[in-house]
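Could you help me review a protein record that somebody else here produced? What it holds is a sequence and that sequence's fold in token form. I need someone to confirm that the token line plausibly describes how this chain folds. Take the sequence as given and treat only the tokens as open to question. This is what I was given:
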Amino acid sequence: MRARTKTALRAVVPGTAGLLLCAALWEAVPRLGLVESDYLPPFTTTLRALGRELGDGAFWSALGDTLTGWALGLALATAGGILAGLLIATVPYLRELTTSTVEFLRPIPSVALIPLAVLLFGTELRSVLLLVVYAAFWQVLVQVLYGVQDVDPVAEDTARAFGLGPWARIRHVVWPTALPYVMTGVRLAAAVALILAITVELVIGAPGLGHEINVAQTSQAVPDMYALILVAGGLGVAVNVVARAVERRVLSWHQSVRAEVPA
């Protein structure tokens, strides 16, 4: 227990020190006149604006809208990526048939599809979901393909020799090997989904934090704008921490996770 506490402190202290240093620089730059405070208010001014936002019901409504779009989009992308990845990787010749299609569609940036989303769904939640799912789906799909490709052929041949059917081989051989890759894909997809959710809200005006940032910017409420940007950054950190915690929990049996725990 003591060793775990020391390990946790070694991980947290440098990060916290870095954040405090950034906050100090943020405070000093406008006060020293290096940047006008109209464009970059001091950190303490931004914190006061953040306090006002936290007491506003509209802020919590916007936060809920962003988290709803993020969570639904991530869930759909994860389910679709896992199912499609397992199907493509386990059906003979299907991966060869889809390789060109995947490599063509995957690099297309989701923001390029914003006009299509607006044309189809306007500024509703469905537009956010369309773009979030498209961006996050590829993160999961590619990792699943890599995971299935990493399955030991000897283990698969042994399972087939013992009479295991396709679903049994997927459950007992393919899935345990692919799961670490799947969790990596989900962790990456969680970050991408949050970025896309806020970006889409910012660009098309869908309800959420991105829309509130845009409103603050156009109304010259610069401290409120930076306060909302801080919230977006905090969400990103929280999503990463939660995703890593879930990954360690799900893969507690895996060597890569056990190696992180000191003896």
The longest helix spans residues 166-204.
